[in-house]
Amino acid sequence: MPKQQRKHEARPSRHTRRENERERYARAGDAQPLREFDRLIHERVRLGMVSALAVNESLTFSDLKGLLATTDGNLSVHARKLEEAGYVACDKYFDGRVPRTEYRLTAEGRKALEQYLDEMEDLISSMRKR
Is the residue at 54 inside a domain? Predict the structure, then answer.
């Protein structure tokens, strides 16, 4: 007996799925779809990093590692992602013979953090009204 072949239907694009969700919520009355947060900032270590840099002019790698209670490798991966996005700037220099890495929040990073916080405040506010 020959194996039945399944026809794979193409999965709807993310845009199509989002539109379908909006239509479903529109039919549900007042229900509002959850916003998509900036995933780059939403992750715990990256959120901690941009938050710490928002209240400090700059912080060293060691300072951030201690504040965020994370490993060297984990922090460097997250810092690189934020740097590639233009959210943080990294300066490397030597203090005597000791290499130092210092991070600061860019204007773009501050704007992204403020937008993220506004979205979180809106979500919290809408939940408290219910």
Answer: yes
Alpha-helical (H) ranges within the chain are 14-27, 39-42, 44-55, 61-68, 72-84, 107-129
- Alpha-carbon gap, residue 9 to 11, rounded angstroms: 6
Instruction: Report the 10 Å Cβ neighbour count for 99.
Output: 10
In angstroms, rounded to a whole number, what is the distance separating the alpha carbons of residues 26 and 75? 41
Residue 5 pLDDT more than 90?
Answer: no
Residue 15 domain flag:
no
Give pLDDT, residue 39. Answer: 87
pLDDT by residue (tens digit) across 18-48?
Answer: 666 656 555 545 555 556 778 899 999 999 9
Domain range holding 82? 37-129
Return the bridge partners of 88, or none: 105
